[in-house]
Amino acid sequence: GENVEQHPSTLSVQEGDSAVIKCTYSDSASNYFPWYKQELGKRPQLIIDIRSNVGEKKDQRIAVTLNKTAKHFSLHITETQPEDSAVYFCAASRRGGGTSYGKLTFGQGTILTVHP
Amino acid sequence: DTEVTQTPKHLVMGMTNKKSLKCEQHMGHRAMYWYKQKAKKPPELMFVYSYEKLSINESVPSRFSPECPNSSLLNLHLHALQPEDSALYLCASSSGVYNEQFFGPGTRLTVL
User: Fold this and answer.
1) Confidence at residue B2, expressed as pLDDT on a 0 to 100 scale
2) Do residues B30 and B48 touch, judged by C-beta distance below 8 A?
3) Which of A93, A116, B11, B104 has its CA 20 to 30 A from that of A53?
């Protein structure tokens, strides 16, 4: 099955700095890569995703890049703010169908702390 | 309505109790999921329902019993749980095509 490794496990930055979180995956058939942000006591919230036919995607201060050959993808947050502090999870899955329908494999998470 | 809702928010139960968790979505999604999450760990998939049929059971103990009465509702029946089952139980739904999964707020379960 799929295995997703996420690094670093903790990341501490100063407000205004950039933050980068990296994930690698093992299943070359994976083609959908979402990122979730989870604040303390709240639900995981989808913040950005990328599909395997795209190399990069941006949404304001957040960007995700995908290298299919190397099987890794990264989350980039620019101009970090204290409210970006949370646990971030990457995940990978294949387009639905059969027994793999909608099965996300998550990384272990990164605790991001943004200091004012 | 673009939300997944879950009830109750918190649940405390003894090891001999029977209780149920409920999840509802009105986004027309045809896939619904149950996850278990321990503190600072990723969600662990328990069950997947696709078009109201159980499509994935991740070898979950039989003391957890899922039910999908219709395309908008998903229940998780609990019986004879153990203290190690204490966790945040998350429901999610997905349109399925590109697997964007949207999570509910979760039920914080404590087993005494």
Assistant:
1) 62
2) no
3) B104
Ramachandran angles phi, psi of A100, nearest 5°: -95, 10
pLDDT value at B111 more than 80 = yes
Q: What is the rounded CA–CA span in Å between residue A21 and residue B23?
A: 32
Of B42, B99, B106, the CB nearest to A106: B42
Residue-wise pLDDT tens digits, A54-93: 899 999 999 999 999 999 999 999 999 999 999 999 999 8
Residues in B lying within 8 Å of A, measured between beta carbons: 31, 33, 40-43, 45, 48, 50, 55-56, 90, 94, 96-106
Task: Kindly state whether A42 is in contact with chain B, defined as any CB-CB distance less than 8 angstroms.
Answer: yes
- A80: three-class secondary structure by DSSP: coil
Task: State whether residue A63 is helix, strand or coil.
Answer: strand
Size of interface A-B (CB pairs under 8 A): 66
* Rounded-to-integer distance, Cα B87 and Cα B18, Å: 16
Which chain A residues are closer than 8 Å to B102 by Cβ? 46
Tell me the pLDDT tens digit for each residue of A7-44.
Answer: 999 999 999 999 999 999 999 989 899 999 999 989 99
